[in-house]
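[Archive record]
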Amino acid sequence: ESIHDTGHGGIIVSVHQQIGGIELYRSAAKVLLARDLRLIAIGGNLHADAVATEKYGSFSLSGADAVAVALTDLHGVHVVGADLFDGGALAGGYRGLSLSTHASTEASVVKMRRPARFKPVYFPLPEGLVPAYFLELSTTDLTTGEPDAYAYVIAANDGRILQRTNLTHTDTFS
């Protein structure tokens, strides 16, 4: 999928698994080659269940509904997909969503510092692959003024939160 070649030193080739054009979440391999293309090393993790003929369920939840689930979880206010409007296609296969000016009263306590971005993925679980959405939120709670930046993976078949990651890391010198 991508080749990193600076013109000297090793060449790194990265490949990502996809099923029907949809990325398998965190499933990639990297190959390190010498300048003469001899294999030096292979690293990463490819998923054995990623077979194009398999059925993994449907994306019955919309991307807007998945973002609403994440906003509800993050801010503790009820947000629905209808509170969001589509901001169009973004780089990397993502789509953007923003809160509508006509959002519900509860959703109005949330300010999106930038549009939420989301894309469909397949998420590996022990029982198999689950259709899901990977999304990133950058918001401010207007009642506290506190900014938040989180990444979520939301199951597209039932709205479960499969992963929640705080993207804000702070450090204090003492």
In short: The mean pLDDT is 87. Residues 47 and 151 are 22 Å apart (CA to CA).
